[in-house]
Amino acid sequence: MIRLPRLLAAGVVLAAVAGLSACAGTVSMDAAPNANDPACADVSVRLPQTIAGETRRWTDAQATGAWGDPSAILLTCGVAVPGPSTLSCQNVEGVDWLVDETDAPFYRFTTFGRTPAVEVYLDFDVVGSADTLRAVSPMLARQLVETGSVCTDRPGTDG
User: What is the superkingdom listed in this entry's lineage (predicted)?
Assistant: First the structure.
């Protein structure tokens, strides 16, 4: 009869170890101020499993996504909607993105003219912006409300 408690104890230890190892891959992030916007929930459930060959990882914050190990792509929904900016802007699959190169080789891309706003932070030593933004832009174009603002420095616009 002593075997049953030992087997139960062993099972509990194995379950605890398995649970801890599952948490080891979680990426710690901060939720944005407007992460509770219902559109961010729609974005979160539609994030791709892979981007530019990098696999999605669990995050510990609402309306966020991370890809790669270590993380090369971080996405946060619900960041402050940017106003007019002197940053360069590019259109990818119908979504305008402000490009902040301040921390190169880490680049910050923020949707422009959409609410809630989404930010994508990339490690350019690992992934490029073209593949990354093409992977998320079509979904964001469907999920985020257009505000009417567009980039004025992109080809084909009057500015």
Answer: Bacteria
